[in-house]
Specification:
The complex is a heterodimer of chains A (344) and B (200).
Chain A: H1 2-22, H2 31-36, E1 47-52, E2 58-62, E3 66-70, E4 77-79, E5 88-95, E6 99-104, E7 112-118, E8 126-133, E9 135-138, E10 145-148, E11 152-156, E12 170-172, E13 176-185, E14 188-195, E15 201-207, E16 210-218, E17 222-227, E18 233-237, E19 241-245, E20 254-259, E21 275-277, E22 280-284, E23 290-294, E24 300-302, H3 306-311, E25 316-322, E26 325-330, E27 335-338
Antiparallel strand pairs in A: 1-2, 2-3, 3-4, 5-6, 6-7, 7-8, 9-10, 10-11, 11-12, 13-14, 14-15, 15-16, 17-18, 18-19, 19-20, 21-22, 22-23, 23-24, 25-26, 26-27
Chain B: H1 2-21, E1 34-49, E2 57-59, E3 68-78, E4 83-95, E5 100-112, E6 119-120, E7 123-134, E8 137-153, E9 158-171, E10 184-199
Antiparallel strand pairs in B: 1-2, 1-3, 1-10, 3-4, 4-5, 5-7, 6-8, 7-8, 8-9, 9-10
Classes of the chains: A mainly beta (344), B mainly beta (200).
C-alpha cells in the first residue's frame, strides 16, 4: 500500500513536471506581452518617411493616402496637396537642403512629372518642378537620381538635373539595366546596375565627391549599406552576406562570411532600410527579426535593445533620424518612434 | 457585445413563459447521468498581469485586446447527483490592435450543481492546456477556468445556460534565452450561451 502511494505520487510529480515544461513558451518573446504593446493599424498604408519639415514634422509618402505630413507631437496625419495626375511612386523620392522631391508614375520610357515640397512650410504643398526626364530611381535621403536617356543611365542631382554635375556616372543602356540609386545623404550614395548579358550586379559608392567600386559582377545586388563618419562601410547583399570595408576610400568591401536572412520584397534589388546607433547597424530581416551588424567588424547578432520588441510586430520599410529622434515608416502601422536604451 | 448580452438575457427571460406551458418533468441526476453541451459567446479581455513590468496590471482595453469570441463542446458524466466531471474543447479568438490571437483550450472540467431542476445553477472549475497562436508564434500553456451560470431546461432533456467566468492563461518563458520580463498571466472572461442535452 505504502509503495503504491509512493509510486503514484512520483508518477504524478513527473507528469506535473512534464506538463509544466510543456506549458512554457520557449520563444524569446511573450505573445501576451507583444499584444500589450501592439500598435494599431494606420489607414494610410505603407509609409516611406522622407524628411523633416521646419517644425520637426515628417514629410512622408504613403501608399494609400498619397503625400502626408505626420505631426510627431500629436501622431496625426494631414494631406500634402500635390496636383499630381498619376500616383507618386515610392522609389521616386529625394531631398536636398530645402526641398523634398517626389515623382509620379509614367509609362515606360516616358518622362516623369516631378514635384517639389518646401520643407520650410508648416503646411507644405507640392508644386510642379520638372517634367523633362525619364527618372528611373531617386535616392530617398539624398539629392540624387538616375535618369534614363536614349542611350544611357545618367546619375544626376535632383536640385541641378544637369548631367555635367556628375559626369563620371553614366552607364550605357546597351550594357546595363535596372539602374538604382540608394542615398544615405547628399554626400553618400550607392548606384547599382545590372549587366544585361549575364544578370550580374555592379555597384559604386559616391563618398565625399569621389566614386569607389563596391561590388563588381556579383550574382546578388547590394540591398542595404551604411558608411559611418570614419568611413567604415557595411554592405548587405541580396543573399544576406555582409560585406565590410574599414575605409571605403581606401579598400573595396570584402565578404565577412557573416549573413542575415533578408525579408521578402517586391523585387530582388529593392532597397532595405538601415538604422544606426553607435557601432550598431540595425536591419530588419525575415519574420521581422532585427539584426544588429557591428560597423567595427561586421559581426551579426539578433538585436536585444528594448526597441526591438516593439518593432517585432511591425514591418519596416524606411527610417529617418533627426533632432536626436528616430522614426520608422511601416507597412501597416504608420510611423513609430524608436528609442534606444543605450549606445553600443 | 452589448447586443449579444441583451439577446442572451432576453432569451433567458422569455424561456420561462414556455416553461409555464410545458409539462416538463425535472431530471434527477444520479451517478452515470450524462450531459452534452454546445457553447458560444463573446470573450472579454479581463486582465493582463505582467509581474516584471512597470505597469503590472492591465485591464480590459488597456490589454490592447478587443472583445473576441469563444465556442466549445463539452461532455460531462455525473459522479454523484451533484457533481459532474468531463472535458471541454474550445476555440477562443480575439484581435489585438492589428492581428488575430487564437487559442484552443482543452480542459478537464468539474461542475457542481447546488440547485437542480427546471432552473439550475452550475458552478464549474476547469484545468487543462491551451494552444495559443499570435502572428507567427505559437505555444502551449496551462489553463485554469472558473465559471458560474444559470440554466433553464424547457424539457426533461434540453436546456440553455447563460454563464460567465474567467479563463486564466499563464505564459511562462522559463526556457527562453532572454530574461523573463515578458512573462504574463492573461485573463479572458467568456460570457457564453449554451445549449445542453442531458440524459440518464
Amino acid at each position: 500500500m505504502r509503495n503504491t502511494i509512493i509510486h503514484r505520487t512520483l508518477a504524478g510529480a513527473v507528469a506535473l513536471l512534464i506538463l509544466f515544461t510543456l506549458s512554457c513558451n520557449i520563444d524569446d518573446e511573450g505573445i501576451f506581452y507583444r499584444v500589450s504593446i501592439s500598435e494599431p493599424i494606420v489607414e494610410v498604408g505603407a509609409v516611406t518617411v522622407i524628411d523633416f519639415n521646419t517644425d520637426g514634422n515628417i514629410i512622408a509618402h504613403t501608399k494609400d493616402a498619397g503625400m502626408q505630413l505626420y505631426n510627431t507631437a500629436t501622431g496625426t496625419w494631414s494631406e500634402i496637396a500635390v496636383n499630381n495626375s498619376n500616383p507618386i511612386r515610392a522609389n521616386l523620392l529625394a531631398t536636398d537642403a530645402t526641398r523634398v522631391f517626389i515623382g509620379e508614375s509614367a509609362a515606360l520610357e516616358e518622362n516623369n512629372d516631378l514635384y517639389a515640397i518646401l520643407r520650410s512650410d508648416s503646411s507644405p504643398t507640392g508644386t510642379a518642378y520638372n517634367s523633362t526626364m525619364d527618372v528611373v530611381s531617386m535616392g530617398l535621403h539624398g539629392d540624387v537620381m538616375v535618369v534614363e536617356t536614349a542611350t544611357d543611365f545618367e546619375v544626376r542631382t535632383v536640385s541641378v538635373p544637369d548631367p555635367a554635375t556628375l559626369p563620371d556616372w553614366i552607364f550605357s543602356t546597351a550594357t546595363y539595366r535596372n539602374a538604382e540609386v540608394f542615398a544615405q545623404d547628399d554626400d553618400t550614395f550607392l548606384v547599382q546596375v545590372q549587366k544585361t548579358a549575364d544578370d550580374t550586379y555592379t555597384s559604386y559608392l559616391y563618398e565625399g565627391g569621389t566614386r569607389y567600386p563596391v561590388t563588381a559582377d556579383l550574382e546578388h545586388p547590394v540591398r542595404a549599406f551604411f558608411v559611418d563618419s570614419t568611413d567604415q562601410g557595411i554592405f548587405v547583399l541580396g543573399d544576406g552576406s555582409v560585406y565590410r570595408s574599414s575605409d571605403v576610400a581606401a579598400t573595396q568591401p570584402t565578404d565577412t562570411a557573416n549573413t542575415i536572412t533578408l525579408k521578402t520584397t517586391n523585387t530582388e534589388f529593392t532597397f532595405l532600410p538601415v538604422l544606426t546607433n553607435g557601432d550598431a547597424l540595425y536591419m530588419q530581416g525575415s519574420a521581422n527579426i532585427m539584426y544588429s551588424i557591428s560597423m567595427t567588424d561586421g559581426t551579426v547578432a539578433s538585436a536585444e535593445d528594448d526597441f526591438v520588441t516593439t518593432l517585432s510586430t511591425v514591418d519596416i520599410i524606411s527610417y529617418i533620424s533627426g533632432g536626436g529622434k528616430n522614426y520608422a515608416g511601416t507597412i501597416e502601422h504608420g510611423i513609430i518612434e524608436i528609442e534606444f536604451a543605450s549606445v553600443p | 457585445m452589448k447586443r449579444i448580452l441583451v439577446l442572451m438575457i432576453l432569451i433567458l427571460l422569455i424561456l420561462p413563459i414556455f416553461a409555464a406551458e410545458s409539462d416538463a418533468k425535472p431530471l434527477e441526476y444520479e451517478k452515470g447521468s450524462q450531459m452534452f453541451t454546445f457553447r458560444f459567446g463573446p470573450v472579454v479581455p479581463a486582465f493582463m498581469f505582467r509581474p516584471n513590468q512597470e505597469d503590472q496590471l492591465l485591464t480590459f482595453g488597456d490589454t490592447h485586446f478587443k472583445t473576441g469570441g469563444y465556442g466549445a463542446i463539452r461532455y460531462q458524466g455525473f459522479l454523484s447527483s451533484y457533481l459532474a466531471l468531463g472535458g471541454e474543447l474550445g476555440y477562443t479568438f480575439a484581435y489585438d490592435q492589428s492581428y488575430l490571437f487564437t487559442s484552443v483550450p482543452f480542459q478537464v472540467k468539474a461542475t457542481y450543481l447546488p440547485v437542480q431542476g427546471t432552473v439550475e445553477l452550475p458552478l464549474s472549475l476547469g484545468l487543462g492546456f491551451a494552444y495559443n497562436s499570435y502572428e507567427e508564434t505559437s505555444f502551449m500553456s496551462l489553463l485554469a477556468t472558473a465559471e458560474a451560470g444559470v440554466s433553464f431546461y424547457w424539457t426533461e432533456n434540453w436546456g440553455v445556460t447563460l454563464s460567465a467566468g474567467v479563463q486564466v492563461i499563464p505564459e511562462l518563458l522559463l526556457f527562453s534565452d532572454n530574461p523573463n520580463d515578458q512573462e504574463t498571466v492573461m485573463g479572458f472572461m467568456p460570457i457564453t450561451f449554451s445549449l445542453s442535452y442531458r440524459g440518464e
